[in-house]
Amino acid sequence: MSSAAPLSLVKYETPVLLSEVLHKKALASKRPKANDGQPKPQSEDVLFSILPPREFEKDGQRWIQYPSSTPATRLDVIRLQEQLDTLLTERQARETGVCPIREELYGQVFDELIRQVTISCAERGLLLLRVRDEIRMTLDAYRSLYESSIAFGMRKALHAEQSHVELEARVRALEREKAELQQQVEDLTEECAQIEQDEMQRRQDEQRKHDEEVAFFRRTYETLTANLQTVVNPTKA
After folding, report:
1. 77-99 confidence digits (pLDDT tens)
2. Phi, psi angles (nearest 5°) of residue 216
3. pTM for the whole structure
């Protein structure tokens, strides 16, 4: 329980001790009753049902403060507007966008207008109450939708960030694989070049050996042929 009554744009009566409320209830029970035996509805009762009294603690005692049942004058309305502008400035309420401070202050102004209307006509006050509650439910629905959208956006952002991290890891893995494959290509290219060089050297060696053998056999043939001619035709020798 707060130590003092909070500031509000709603006009309240002078605070009274909570113990005095029992006395007021006793007086209310003595009001004239309608034909059905129920107390006749009073604008004050409707007002208190719309704007419940607020309680606070001060100097070790419990106090209660009821909304004022005094009709508002034109000057009161002008002062209300001035107080609203002053509080909006002092509490640094944002002029646009979502602002809890601005929402709170305008809510208090609306409650004060309901109070003023209810005093003169309880039915109009109840109708304004329905309008206020409908507006609040609509705002709550939009707020819930906004929070859901924010949560959805955050989940999407986290998912995108996670996907981004996974893609970066995949890219790094592919780059490593690419480097390994490039190294394999270089190794195989070098191996192929070495094999070609060895094969060329082998063919050259075999060709040289073949040429030497052919030359040897040709010389041998020529020598044998000459020897044979000497044997067959000794006179020519």
Report:
1. 999 999 999 999 999 999 888 88
2. -65, -45
3. 0.58
